[in-house]
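Fig. S4 source data, part A: sequence.
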Amino acid sequence: MADLVLVTGASGYLAGHVITELIDHGYRVRGTVRSLARTDAVAHLPAGVELVQADLTSDTGWEAAAAGCRYVVHTASPFPSSPPKDENDLIRPAVDGTRRVLRAAAAAGADRVVLTSSMAAIMFGNWNHVLTEQDWSDPGVAPAYPKSKTLAERAAWDFAADHPELELAVVNPGMIIGPVQSAAGVGTSVDGIRVLLDAGMPGVPRLNFATVDVRDVALAHRLAMETPAAAGNRYIAAGEQISFPEIARILATRYRVPTRALPDWLVRLVARFDATARTAALYLGREERVSAAKARRELGWTQRPVEETLFDTAESLIRFGLADPIRTAGPARSSAA
């Protein structure tokens, strides 16, 4: 019988692609959701996925969720579009939820947990060099979300050190973009593409991102799960940095989108009144120079071109009625499922 994998946060943007990747490669999948009543949030998942109810903020349900699973892929973590009023609203579920998942995996006798961390756990306080897996964000200078990811990953490694029988591998993606699988599946990072397509801003802020396709992140998780030498390692999954104005210019070859770069002072001014702009302002003037050489070397991981990712993202948003841009050229070739 095929190995059973538990994927947490099954209704999430990344989790849906991880589940698809696993099922396409012959695994059985059980997914956790906060409420089994929200059938619309998981209608896009492949047939055969078993769903169970478990919440990061409660111990209830995790023992049963992990029972019989050889692997656990922990993708679930809150990712808001704007800073919370209280940072603990992010930190508590991220850290405590990670511990709950690891405890359940250990109790179930699972072989390995693959944790979805983030470049956010690597880059804050480390802006002046090419980042590798040796770098860690400084929680003392990190805003709420990066702080939550840093502390959650630290907690995972501490747990693994105390439970050597349970292997841990960590994937640290950059800004995840790529096709959505349903109308309910727009992640926070993809929403910027949606706003661009709908010409919902007068220009684009001068932000730099090390992006990665959601399908390539799903691949990284499967490889980190399957590769024996991945145990005890973290892997950056991100490409060369690209600016938001560059993203806009690529999309502008097929859609009418704003391409004018907004001056930093204007973004900071708007940030006084708008929570989303306040998040963007945190990244102004910063570069995301990263190296994914370790993932390529040890996992055999590969990435598709950013142009393919952007056009597939756009076409999926249009297909699900989430964006309605004016086309300036024919539809891009889409490899989205």
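Fig. S4 source data, part B ends here. The domain at 4-184+213-237 is CATH 3.40.50.720 (Rossmann fold).
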